[in-house]
Design goal:
heterodimer, A: mainly alpha, A middle domain of Talin 1, about 60% helix, B: about 475 residues, alpha+beta, 3-stranded antiparallel sheet, about 15% strand
């Protein structure tokens, strides 16, 4: 999308111009409510499948971590890292289900908080005694309660648990210069400093991710009128659709375009990437964007191969304003493609002049995701749904 | 050594009416007729006008106002990054370096987590998200508070390695029982603050203390854009109407303009702009210098220890970073209102007006010009008049700042108050977090708000619940 059309959109959003107010003018179509309910029900099925996959891969990570702790060596360390990548990339599909105080919002801070101050958890190069792992005096016993109580204590970067705490415990600090960290498996083997505490810490924070994702999967599980999904399906369809659009728009604009890309692009600091220890941010970004596309189109292919497909936001928009539906559809495609075009690894993609192809690609993704967010807010207007973003 | 100060003395008249209540002879006061001005015209969900975002998750206070241009969006997210991340000791050219030597927090987000409200510590634990201002009687430059000769303007409980922290401040609480008009009992906790572990000798014997919890960040740019004339008109109207409510503006030093200006921010309205508030917080709370405040924050008495720890040269917070953090703070959107057509919420809103809460917690203000179109010429619903009001002896800190007396507090905006538990994970309210919930916060109101508090106290349980439902929908 060209800058000029983004500007028009932005201005239109500010002035609340009736760019597309067809919804209000159309006669009530028979079946409109049924379609809304079908879109909402299909969304719930997508969420359920997504979080089920996320939970399954987290459990595999838990298994791999237990293997590492049982038999620390090069192979078990590599396997644990691979399991982390798989689990976190699967989780990334589900981030579009955030931002409306749904089940994931209740535990997100304990599952995927970042940025993370590595020295809050364990030794770093210039502070070998740093972190909860080494602070025996303040935390004589590392327990579930201690880890949870220390998360985000006295600062949002003081992250004690979640995927990125595990990431640091598996990769360690990135080396000077560029690239991923390469923590030695020996950090978990007999003889390492505070090894029992580090082992216990890694085991606990991995267990916590599984435990918290379980609550989310349960909340979205089918067939329980009392869980979140049951209530979500029963509530006013407009309110449920507002949640769906909020998740898509908030992830696309403020979160992805803003916090995850703009800051890294501007500062060129590799610590500004989400997966700064494993340097695997690009894969997650693709799945983040694809997760939004999934909700828009109403489909998801589960890890089992099962295909979930039903009406999506796109179908609803087509019924009300077909031209706008196509425009947003094109933008969703553009956004996913733009994110795919960022050349990995992320810490290299942010470097260079603004004319360097990697930075041009990143800027395109920033712009496309922001435009997508603005258009999602516009979609709400088309559907006569209250949303400002 | 322990310096125990009775920061708050429970009002004698409270004791008196509690006793009366126990005798069961106090008649329920009839609701006063509400003046036209007090009637809320806040009938829109757009609490912040075009600067509203509808999000009810823990991130609800953290969104940019919709439609920022590209440069501003970029600044917003860089500002966000510097707001949430930890600073370290040392200094430029290292990034985020220059913390201390004395400080309260390593990051803005330490106190404003999720851009929300700070939380008081457990009883007996040192204050972290509540800071303790300190001064001695008299007026400093431009009429502000006169800093303690040794400890300066606030107690910094942390220091970089090799430097002694100033002191710890701990709170203990006494329970004060009371009763609603219908006989239901309640208990308020009255804090006593003690300064312990003094690192630099005793505080001045006549030191004045004032605890301040970190407030929520949303909507600051809108509040900054409300013209002075509108606030003055509200003060004049309150004076004209009587009813014992008469707010006034603070007059404070604006270091950028180099002259006195009206105070808008802080619990005593002692800061004129978000820019000055931010630079001051960097300097006093985190020990970071900036172009506006290039001097490290320690006193002469502390210089021997602190001086060598402060690399001189360029400011820790560059002009660009300060700009971006200020832009971030000014363009955090206001959460939209919820459940506005709910019958109980509507009844609560009516009761709020009947009890004349809305006289000070003014439902509607208007912004004037702003460098951000989203903030300019907006009709907004902060539920604050931004004026100082005498809140009575029970809440007094006995520490004047400019034109704010010990009893005076600026009406805090109520927008987003119903989301505090989601965003900040607690419901502690008032300037030092002594109130454990909204009910207690209302019951602490005294002074000019005494009559309103009494009306609330004498409401039926269902009416009290309706009023809370209204607040929780803001």
């Amino acid at each position: 999308m060209k800058a000029s059309s983004i500007l028009i959109l932005l201005v239109a959003t500010c002035l609340r111009l009736p760019l597309a107010t067809a919804a209000a003018d159309l006669p009530a179509k028979s079946g409109a409510t049924e379609l809304k309910r079908a879109v909402i029900a299909n969304y719930a099925a997508l969420a359920s499948a997504g979080f089920q996959d996320s939970l399954e891969t987290a459990k595999k990570l838990q298994g791999a971590v237990n293997e590492l702790l049982a038999k620390p060596c090069e192979e078990t360390m590599a396997a644990a890292r691979q399991a982390w990548l798989s689990a976190h990339q699967t989780y990334s599909f589900t981030e579009t289900f955030r931002f409306y105080n749904g089940p994931i919002d209740q535990v997100e801070a304990l599952v995927n908080s970042w940025p993370i101050d590595a020295s809050y958890i364990d030794s770093v190069a210039d502070a070998p005694d740093a972190g909860i792992v080494n602070d025996v005096a303040s935390h004589p016993k590392i327990s579930r309660a201690v880890v949870i109580s220390l998360n985000a204590k006295d600062g949002k970067q003081n992250i004690s648990t979640g995927y990125h705490a595990i990431e640091f415990l598996l990769w360690g600090q990135p080396p000077e210069g560029r690239g991923a960290g390469n923590r030695s498996w020996q950090d978990y083997a007999d003889g390492a400093k505070n090894v029992e505490r580090r082992r216990e810490y890694l085991r606990l924070v991995t267990d916590l991710v599984v435990e918290h994702l379980e609550t989310v999967a349960d909340a979205w599980a089918n067939g329980d009128s009392k869980n979140f999904r049951g209530k979500f399906l029963a509530k006013d369809p407009k309110a449920a659709l507002a949640d769906i659009l909020m998740g898509m728009g908030a992830l696309s604009g403020p979160e992805l375009s803003g916090e995850r890309l703009t800051t890294a692009y501007e500062t060129k600091e590799r610590g500004e990437q989400e997966d700064c220890f494993s340097n695997s941010t690009c894969d997650d970004l693709i799945n983040n964007a694809a997760g939004i596309e999934n909700v828009f189109l109403g489909h998801y292919t589960a890890l089992s191969g099962e295909k979930i497909a039903g009406p999506g936001v796109f179908d609803l928009l087509k019924q009300v304003d077909p031209a706008f539906a196509v425009k947003l559809s094109e933008q969703v495609t553009t956004a996913v493609a733009a994110v795919r075009d960022i050349p990995p690894p992320f810490d290299q993609a942010i470097l260079g002049t603004n004319e360097a192809p990697n930075r041009v690609a990143m800027k395109k993704a920033i712009t496309a995701l922001q435009a997508q967010s603005s258009m999602v807010a516009q979609a709400a207007k088309v559907l006569s749904i209250r949303l400002k973003l | 050594m322990i310096t125990a100060l009775r920061a708050n003395v429970f009002p004698v008249r409270w004791m008196a009416w509690s006793a009366v209540l126990l005798l069961g002879v106090l008649a329920v006061q009839p609701a006063e007729p509400n003046s036209p001005e007090a009637v809320s015209d806040a009938t829109t969900e757009l609490a912040g006008g075009n600067a509203t975002v509808f999000d009810v998750s823990p991130k609800a206070f953290g969104f940019p106002v919709p439609g920022l241009d590209e440069d501003s969006r970029t600044s917003f997210f860089i500002g966000h990054s510097f707001f949430i991340r930890n600073w370290v000791a040392g200094g430029p050219p290292a990034t985020r370096a220059g913390l201390g030597p004395l400080f309260n927090a390593r990051a803005c987000s330490a106190c404003h987590a999720n851009d929300g409200r700070g939380r008081p510590p457990e009883p007996g634990q040192p204050l972290v998200q509540v800071l303790m201002r300190v001064s001695v009687p008299g007026a400093g430059p431009h009429g502000g508070a006169l800093p303690d000769p040794v400890y300066g303007g606030q107690i910094e409980g942390q220091a970089i390695p090799g430097v002694r922290p100033e002191a710890d401040v701990v709170a203990t609480y006494a329970e004060l029982p009371g009763q609603f008009g219908d006989g239901e009992t309640f208990s308020l906790r009255s804090p006593t603050y003690s300064v312990i572990n003094h690192g630099y000798g005793p505080l001045a014997p006549n030191a004045l203390l004032s605890p301040r919890v970190a407030p929520a960040m949303c909507g600051l740019g809108l509040l900054e854009a409300v013209p002075e004339s509108e606030l003055k008109a509200i003060a004049e109207r309150q004076a004209r109407e009587g009813h014992g409510v008469q707010g006034h503006l603070n007059s404070v030093w604006d270091a950028v303009a180099g002259k006195m200006a009206i105070g808008r921010f802080g619990w005593k309205a002692e800061q004129p702009t978000v820019f000055q508030q931010s630079a001051t917080a960097f300097n006093e709370d985190m020990g970071l210098t900036s172009p506006l405040l290039p001097q490290e924050n320690y006193t002469k008495a502390e210089a021997a220890v602190c001086e060598m720890k402060s690399p001189t040269g360029q400011p820790d917070v560059s002009a660009r970073i300060l700009h971006d953090v200020v832009l971030y703070s000014r363009t955090l959107a206001v959460p939209g209102r919820r459940s506005m057509t709910d019958a109980i919420v509507l009844r609560g809103q009516k009761l709020f007006e009947q009890a004349r809460c809305a006289v000070c917690h003014a439902p509607t203000l208007h912004t004037g010009a702003s460098d951000f179109p989203q903030l300019a010429q907006q009709t907004i619903h902060p539920y604050s008049d931004l004026l100082l009001h005498d809140m009575g002896e029970g809440l007094s800190d006995h520490r004047p700042v400019y034109d704010a007396t010990g009893n005076d507090w600026r009406t805090p905006p109520l927008w987003g108050i119903g989301l505090v538990s989601t965003v900040s994970g607690h419901t502690f309210f008032l300037h030092d977090g002594r109130a454990r919930n909204l009910t207690e916060a209302i019951l602490w109101h005294g002074g000019e708000a005494q009559a309103s508090r009494e009306q609330y106290r004498n409401l039926s349980k269902s009416d009290r619940d309706a009023l809370l439902a209204f607040l929780n929908a803001l």
